[in-house]
Amino acid sequence: MKIITGISNAHRSEEIESYARAGVDEFFIGYVPKEWSDEYGWELSCNRRETSNYQYKSKEELENVVRLIHEKERKVFLTLNAHDYNTKQISLLMKIMEGIRRIPFDGFIVSNLAIILELQQRGFEEEINVSIGAASNNVETIQFFHSTFDKIGRIILPRKLTMSEIQKISEFSGEKGYRLEAFGMSEGCYFNDEFCFTWHGSSNRSFCRSPMFEFRKAKPLVFAENWKEEIFQEDLSPVYRKRIETEQWITAERNNYKVKHPKPPYGKRELNYLPVLANIHKCGLCTFKRFKEWGIEAVKLPLRGHNYKMNLEIVKLTRHVIDHANATADYCRKLLDSPNFCSGQNCYYDFPYSS
Amino acid sequence: MKTQFDFYVYLSNIKHLLNLEKTLQIIDKPSPELFEMLDDDLKINQYSLSVVKKYFDRHFGIDYSGNVEGLYFGQETCENLIPPLKNLQLAVEYCRQHEYHFVFATPYVGPKGMDRLRTLLSYLHKEAPGSEVSVNDYGVLHLLNTEFNNLKPVLGRLLVKLKRDPRFSISGYDITNQGIKNLKKVESNQLDALQGSSLELPVYQNFLRAKGIERICLDTLSQGMSKKTLKKWGFPVDLIWPWSYITSGRSCSIAAHTQPGKEFHPTDEPCKFQCKKYEFTFSSDKKMMPALFRGNAAWMSTQSMYEEFFDLGFDRLVYEPYIPV
What is the tally of helices (H) and strands (E) in chain A? Predict the structure, then answer.
């Protein structure tokens, strides 16, 4: 099983070489040249990363990194996976693409159907990996892409699929010869990326990380369908009672859950390695054995923008587990050596707890 | 007098649908103390109904509640809330009796959800051919194209992927100035792009037509929309108002709230339907559209934007008396 990871122009050549040596087979990159950022800034990026430090910014940088990656006999994909673009943006993007046409990318990562149509109409021959933005949550969507477009490469599975759903989709894809990619470690989204239309970018915190979402309050719903009559009843005590009962129910449910799922002890590594891993959101290590068995072609490590040394550790760990003959969930938990870390809250796919 | 758009009502609760008259009723204003007890959803029900009433009176001289042309039934964000077949049958029968046009709203789904939808679409295919189905999943569109081709797909609002965020409505938003000289130009271009979509592209329009799409759903967007842009889309548009979708997750955070320490509740674990018991409310020091988290999704009320949107030249007003979950 291959590893694909993201890099940006913050990476030096030797760092990219280290990734390759540590087991990365493919890289993906974003390209936002000045002609785009001068028009649309960074918030409305031409790919799904809406900050400046996740990108390559000049043709020269792009040529150099593609050459380097190919010298290391690895592949490189260009991300063109923003959710939506208007006509002017598409025209500008296609102009940019014509300008870098001779750079030998191995493929593009795309989510918007109009972009796929435009690229094909303009004769781009590169294969298209279907981004999570296209929401391939079921086999019918995968059939939709393969029956509609030529040169579909891999379908990238959305993060919020569960293991049993991934298994079902993989079995179908295996029979048809369709190729799949799944998220492995890091950058777990709070919501379904493909249906999250909120504003990102460094000047405005993402909705899921904003104080308004962080400090959300649970409010009981006390009125029934007949509220237009209920509200005029003389005795409103049933409504007040329902509010109190619901609040009590929420508290009881939360307490019961805590009793049934006590916090396991912290391991030694919790003090150095694991908090960083948890900080960059989610770990799917113990799913790789299953992914391999199900024929998933690649795991994605969306590490663009994170610390190089940390990224390298994650790549090594991922490669070790993928190449291990029998990396069971128990084996992976021993590797991480922290029952607390592995108690559910850091899992990409809520596995093995869901099984 | 002919209205400039058809009036549709969108409901996810079968009881609301079967009591449509009550659902569309404006009640006497309760006392301030009672009014405060109401959920925002219910307050907005009354406010938005008053807006609709006034608009219909003023512009068309007719009563809104007697001029419903069709019903949307279903919901678009959670496969656990897909209605049972019995409710779909009731909704279709109700529409038949009242000569309302019927549109079935479907969510994005995993494999199990797709199986459930297949059963419901099969019923519509046999018993209500010609019904419209609002699709929010390319897999569902594929299913309609290949197995149920006497149903008409409508491109759902979740497949019209313009940004929508309550936070850039009133207070505005900040722009990163890193390496950017002309911030004003960027700001203006961003607004233009935020109101635009790849639907403007003829190649995409032709593609959608080839897939049987003849109509498109649009949320009332907090960043506004221009008549000119809407015209470029080349499809009749169903404008959904006043509850606009923001974001959602198959791993439900409402369900996870009763499981502290675990941020998500995966879709294929048993659901206790906590979303029927409580919602999340938000507060912010920013001036923004009122927003709520109901079901597995966040919603914002664009009730105040009716004047800006109602005259845009869309084909149907799809009125949501309640958040459709």
Answer: 14, 9
On whether the CB atoms of residues B296 and B78 are closer than 8 A, the answer is yes
d(CA B135, CA A318): 37
Please tell me the distance from the alpha carbon of residue B18 to that of residue B10, in angstroms, as a whole number.
Answer: 12
Res. A82: pLDDT tops 70: yes
d(CA A167, CA A177): 15
Residues 273-292, chain A, touching B (beta carbon < 8 A): none
Query: Could you write out the three-class secondary structure of B182-224?
Result: CHHHHHHHHHHHHCCCHHHCHHHHHHHHHCCCCCEEEECCCCC
Q: Is residue B151 over pLDDT 80?
A: yes
Under CATH, which architecture does the A2-205+280-336 domain have? Alpha-Beta Barrel (3.20)
Does residue A158 have a cis peptide bond before it, meaning omega lies within 30 degrees of 0? no
Q: Is the distance from CB of A90 to CB of A27 less than 8 angstroms?
A: no
Strand bridging mode B216-219 / A107-110:
unpaired
* Nearest CA distance, A72 vs chain B (angstrom): 32
In chain B, where the domains are located: 6-249+300-319
User: Per 3-state DSSP, what percentage of chain A is helix, strand, and coil (rounded to 5)?
Assistant: 45, 15, 40
Domain ranges of chain A: 2-205+280-336
Q: Write the CB contacts of B109 (distance below 8 Å, at least 6 apart in sequence).
A: A137, A138, B79, B82, B116, B117, B137, B139, B140
Nearest to A114 by CA among B193, B207, B214: B207
User: pLDDT higher for A162 or B172?
Assistant: A162
B6-249+300-319: CATH number = 3.20.20
């509010």: which residue's tokens? A243
Q: Which helix (H) or strand (E) holds B242?
A: none
Interchain CB contact of B284 with A (< 8 Å): yes
CA distance A333 to B306: 54
pLDDT digits (tens, 9 = 90+) for A219-266: 999 998 999 998 888 888 888 899 999 999 999 999 999 998 887 777
Helix (H), strand (E) at residue A18: helix A13-22
Q: Which of A131, A135, A100, A96 is nearest to A116 (CA)?
A: A131
Residue A61 contacts residue A9 (beta carbons within 8 Å): yes
3-class SS at A294? coil
Looking at residue B21, its amino acid is: E
What's the CA gap between A126 and B36, in Å, rounded? 59
Residues in Cβ contact with A6 at an 8 Å cutoff, skipping those fewer than 6 apart: A27, A28, A29, A30, A54, A79, A301, A302, A303, A304
Residue with tokens 């991922």: A318
Answer whether A253 sits within 8 Å of B194, measured CB to CB.
Answer: no
Query: Considering only CB atoms, which chain B residues are within 8 Å of A195?
Result: 77, 108, 136, 158, 247-248
Q: Which residue has the tokens 């770990």?
A: A283
Residues in CB range of B28: below 8 A, 6 or more apart: A232
Q: Is B67 on the interface with A (CB under 8 A)?
A: no
- The tens digit of pLDDT for each residue in B222-265 reads 889 999 999 999 999 999 999 999 999 998 999 999 988 777 78
Instruction: Please check the confidence at residue A354 and state whether its pLDDT lies above 50.
Output: no
